[in-house]
Design goal:
mainly beta, Immunoglobulin-like, Methylamine Dehydrogenase, Chain H, Type 1 dockerin domain, 3 domains, five-stranded antiparallel sheet
Length: 576
C-alpha cells in the first residue's frame, strides 16, 4: 500500500517481529507537485536553460525572449524561488539558449541562437552570474542549439539547427577558449526543430538525432570519432517537434522520445543496439493539444527515465509521462498556463528530486513546478509493530534495526540523519553500530539527547564501494514506558537535506525512504490500542493547520474532516 499526498510520499510493507527496517529506495505512484509559481522573464519566452551561474550551489535559469530581443538570467535564492530578471540584449529574435562551460573555467556560459538576425551569440560568464558578449558568429537562420564534444578533445562544440533556406545542421567547433569556427554543414530535410545527443551506435562517441517538422522525419548523424557523417533519415509522421534521447527501456542503449505536434502524441523509437531505430503502434502515447518540447528525468525517483512535455495549444498543461521501466508511460497532468514553449526538469530547490520549469510564449514568463517527492525538512513517521499485533507491555524492550541499501549502485561517503521519539512513550536504552555503516569508521557509541538520536555523530569520513546488498547501520533498543499499541520513531533529515552524497559530493539518487513496517492503527493517537474518546478529543484540540503532528492522519498539513472521519471509521479496539 502507498500513501501519496501533496507534501511527501510514504510506502508501507511488512515487518518481522518488532524490527523495523529503513531502506533507501523509491516509491511508485503519482508524483506530488506543488502549485506553480510564475516569474516575469520578458516577451515571448521560447528558450530555457538551467545552470549554477553565480556559483552559490543552486541552479539558476536563463531564458531567451523572441519579442524583447534578449536573454535574461533569473537567480535562484536556494529554495527554488527566483529574483528579478537581468537582461542581456541579443540580436533581433533569439530563439533558444544553451548553458555550458564553453571556456573551461568552471563557470557555465551561454550560447543563444537569433533566427532573424542569423547569428549565434556566445556570452561568457564573468563570475558571480554576470555575463558579457564574447563572440557573435554568423549562421544563417539558426533555430535550436545544443552542445557536443565532437572530437573528444574535452571542449564543448555547438550544433545548430537551421530551419530553412536551406534546412541544415551546422557544427561550430570550439578552439578551447570559447571562440568558435565553422566545422561543417550537413543538409537535412525541411524544418529541423530540435535535436539531442547520445551514443546511439555504442562506439564511444556522441552522435546526433534531429527532428524535421516540415518533412515528417528524423535524421541521425553518426560520429566517426572526428566529426559527423552524412545523415540517415527515418520516417516520422505527424510533425515531429522535439526530441529527448535516453535509455527508456533499460536495455543499455539510447532510445528516442519524440513529441509529434499534429497528432498530439509521444512516440518512442527503440534502439536495436546498433543505432537503428524502430517504432511500433504500442509505443505511441497520447499528449495534450500542440506538444512543443520534451525533457527527460527520473521524476518519481524509481530508477528509470520519465518524460515531461510542454504544450502551446489550447490545453494549459504540462504532462508528465511516468515510465514503468520498460518504456511504457503513464500520464500525470500539471496545470501550467500561458504556453510552455520549452521545458526542463532539474532540481531547483535542492531537495534531490526533479522540479519542472517552462518558458512561456504567451506572456513572457517562467512557470516553476516544485516536485515534492522528497520532502527536504519533513518528518517520516515509522511505526514499530509487534509481530503478534498486540500492545507492547510496560518495560518491554523494542529493537529498531536501521538498514541502508544503495539501489543505484553508487559510492556513498556520508549519511546524515537523526531520529526523534516521544519520551513519554519510549525510553532509549542503547544503540549499537552493527557494522561500519557505509564504510565509515565508528568513533562513539550511539546516544540519545532528549528525544533525539543523531545517527551521524559517531562516524568518521570514509567511503564504500557500490553495493545493492542490505547494509545494517545500527540496532537501537527502546523500552516501553506504558502499554503501547503503535509507538513511533520519526526520521528527519539533517540540513542540508541530502542524506547521502557521492565521492564528488553530489547527491546520491534515487533517494526516498520506505517504511517497511505497517502502522496497524494510525487513528490510535494516544497509543493505547483503542480508538476512542481520548483520540477524538486529541483530534479536536489540534483542529486546523498542524504540520507533521500525529493527529494529521492524511499528512495534508491540516487536521480536518478527513482526519476526523478516519478516527470514526476506526472506532474501537485496534485489530490484532
Amino acid at each position: 500500500m502507498g500513501l501519496v499526498n501533496s507534501t511527501r510520499t510514504v510506502a508501507f510493507g511488512a515487518v518481522v517481529g518488532a524490527t523495523l527496517a529503513i531502506e533507501i529506495a523509491s516509491a511508485r505512484g503519482e508524483v506530488p507537485f506543488a502549485g506553480f509559481q510564475q516569474y516575469e522573464a520578458g516577451a515571448n519566452s521560447t528558450g530555457l536553460a538551467a545552470a549554477d551561474f553565480d556559483g552559490d550551489g543552486d541552479l539558476d535559469l536563463a531564458v531567451s525572449n523572441r519579442d524583447s530581443g534578449d536573454v535574461v538570467v533569473l537567480r535562484n535564492n536556494g529554495s527554488g524561488e527566483f529574483g528579478p530578471p537581468v537582461s542581456y540584449p541579443i540580436g533581433v529574435q533569439p530563439r533558444y539558449v544553451v548553458a555550458a562551460d564553453l571556456d573551461d573555467d568552471g563557470a557555465p556560459d551561454l550560447a543563444v541562437t537569433d533566427k532573424e538576425g542569423s547569428t549565434v551569440t556566445v556570452l561568457r560568464n564573468l563570475g558571480g552570474g554576470a555575463f558579457e558578449v564574447h563572440q557573435v558568429v554568423e549562421v544563417f537562420s539558426p533555430d535550436w542549439i545544443t552542445t557536443i564534444d565532437i572530437n573528444g578533445d574535452g571542449d564543448l562544440d555547438l550544433v545548430i539547427g537551421e530551419h530553412s533556406h536551406p534546412p541544415r545542421v551546422s557544427l561550430l567547433r570550439n578552439n578551447g577558449s570559447a571562440l568558435f569556427f565553422l566545422g561543417g554543414m550537413w543538409d537535412v530535410p525541411s524544418g529541423t526543430r530540435g535535436g539531442d545527443v547520445g551514443d546511439f551506435d555504442a562506439d564511444g562517441d556522441p552522435d546526433l538525432a534531429i527532428v524535421n517538422i516540415a518533412a515528417d522525419s528524423i535524421s541521425i548523424l553518426s560520429n566517426d570519432g572526428g566529426g559527423l557523417t552524412a545523415p540517415v533519415t527515418l520516417p516520422a509522421n505527424d510533425e515531429p517537434r522535439y526530441i529527448a534521447a535516453r535509455d527508456y527501456d533499460a536495455d543499455g542503449d539510447i532510445d528516442l522520445a519524440v513529441v509529434h505536434k499534429r497528432s498530439n502524441d509521444l512516440w518512442l523509437y527503440r534502439n536495436d543496439g546498433t543505432g537503428g531505430f524502430t517504432q511500433a503502434l504500442e509505443d505511441r502515447f497520447a499528449l495534450n493539444d500542440a506538444p512543443h518540447a520534451v525533457d527527460a528525468a527520473d521524476l518519481d525517483l524509481d530508477g528509470d527515465c520519465d518524460l515531461v512535455v510542454s504544450h502551446v495549444g489550447s490545453d494549459p498543461f504540462v504532462r508528465l509521462m511516468l515510465n514503468d521501466g520498460t518504456g511504457k508511460f503513464e500520464p500525470e497532468v500539471l496545470f501550467s498556463p500561458d504556453g510552455g514553449a520549452h521545458v526542463v526538469a532539474v532540481d531547483l530547490d535542492g531537495d534531490s528530486d526533479f522540479d519542472v520549469a517552462t518558458a512561456n510564449t504567451n506572456n513572457g514568463t517562467v512557470n516553476i513546478h516544485r516536485n515534492e517527492t522528497v520532502d527536504a525538512g519533513g518528518i517520516m513517521f515509522l511505526a514499530l509493530v509487534d509481530q503478534a499485533g498486540g500492545p507492547f507491555e510496560p518495560g518491554q524492550e523494542i529493537e529498531v534495526e536501521l538498514r541502508m541499501r544503495d539501489l543505484a549502485g553508487q559510492p556513498v561517503v556520508a549519511y546524515q540523519a537523526f531520529l526523534e521519539f516521544t519520551t513519554t512513550q519510549l525510553a532509549f536504552v542503547e544503540g549499537v553500530y552493527t557494522v561500519e555503516p557505509m564504510g565509515l569508521g565508528i568513533i562513539d557509541p550511539i546516544e540519545a539527547i532528549g528525544g533525539k538520536i543523531d545517527l551521524a555523530a559517531g562516524l568518521l569520513p570514509g567511503k564504500q564501494e557500490p553495493t545493492t546488498e542490505d547494509a545494517a547501520l545500527a540496532v537501537l533498543t527502546f523500552r516501553a514506558l506504558s502499554a503501547l499499541c503503535d509507538p513511533s520513531v520519526r526520521f528527519r533529515p539533517n540540513t542540508p537535506p541530502t542524506r547521502l552524497s557521492g565521492v564528488d559530493g553530489a547527491p546520491v539518487e534515487p533517494l526516498l525512504l520506505i517504511n517497511l513496517g505497517s502502522q496497524s492503527c494510525p487513528a490510535d493517537i494516544n497509543g493505547d490500542c483503542d480508538v476512542g474518546f481520548a483520540d477524538l478529543l486529541s483530534m479536536l484540540t489540534a483542529w486546523g493547520p498542524c504540520e507533521e503532528c500525529p493527529q494529521d492522519l492524511d499528512r495534508s498539513g491540516d487536521v480536518g474532516i478527513t482526519d476526523l472521519l478516519r478516527v470514526l471509521a476506526s472506532w474501537g479496539p485496534c485489530a490484532a
